[in-house]
Amino acid sequence: MHDWAGTRERLDALAVPCRDCNAAAGEPCVVRDGKGRIEKPLEAFPAHTHRMNDARKAPESRPAATDAGETPAAGVNQSTRDESDEMKGGQ
Ligand SMILES: [Zn+2]
Prior knowledge:
The protein is mainly alpha-helical.
């Protein structure tokens, strides 16, 4: 029996809700019976496969990637501000 508490996989998965067992964001996955009642916490995996896939796609679950991409962001901010100035002056 695994204890997934504190693992990276578990923490990442908790950032999004689970569509397999309907666990809300921040709540661990559970095993449900045929009537939707909770039988036990999910122990075979950190979370359901769909949830881990969803977590990988969610931008807020990847803080490490933000650090690597900070250099190009300055140019993006610059052009965005220019566009909003243009909109204000257009009246
Ligand atoms: Zn689940």
